[in-house]
C-alpha cells in the first residue's frame, strides 16, 4: 500500500505540471496572435497614409542621392590623398634603401681601410724594431772600428807593449 501512495503523489504533481504547461502554451499562442493582429493593423494604417509617405520617400531618395554623391566625392578625395601618401612613402622607402646601400658601402670601405691601417701599424712597429737593431749594429761596428784603430795605433806607437 505504501508503494501505491508514493506512485499517486508523483502522478498528481505530473498532471498539475502538464496542465500548467498546456495553460502556458495556450496563453503564449493567444499573446502571439494578438501581437500579429496589432502589427497587421499598424501596417494597414501606414498603407492608408501612403500619399504622404510617397512624397517623403521621393524627397528622401533625392536627399539620399545627394548625400551618396557627396560621400562618393569625399571618398574619391580620400582615395587621392591616400595614393599621394603611398607615393610619398614609396619615395621615402627608396631614399632609405639608397642611403642604407651608401652606408653599407661606406662600412665596407672603412673595414678595408681598417685592415690597411692595421697593416701599416704592424709595418711601422717592425721598422722601429729594425731601426733599433740598426743603431745597435752601427754602435757595435763603430766600437769595433775604434777598437781596431786603437789596436793599430798601439802596435805602431808602442811596439814593445
From TrEMBL:
Membrane topology qualifier: Single-pass type IV membrane protein
Domain Sec20 C-terminal: 67-157
Annotated GO biological process: retrograde vesicle-mediated transport, Golgi to endoplasmic reticulum
Entry keyword Endoplasmic reticulum: yes
GO CC annotations, alphabetized: endoplasmic reticulum membrane; SNARE complex
Protein's UniProt keywords contain Transmembrane: yes
InterPro entries: Sec20, Sec20_C
Compartments, as annotated in UniProt: Endoplasmic reticulum membrane
Single GO term (MF): SNAP receptor activity
Short name of one Pfam family: Sec20
Keywords: Coiled coil, Endoplasmic reticulum, ER-Golgi transport, Membrane, Transmembrane, Transmembrane helix, Transport
Source organism superkingdom: Eukaryota
Transmembrane segments: 136-153
Family (UniProt): Belongs to the SEC20 family.
Name recorded for this polypeptide: BCL2 interacting protein 1
Organism for this UniProt entry: Equus asinus (Donkey)
Gene name tied to this protein: BNIP1
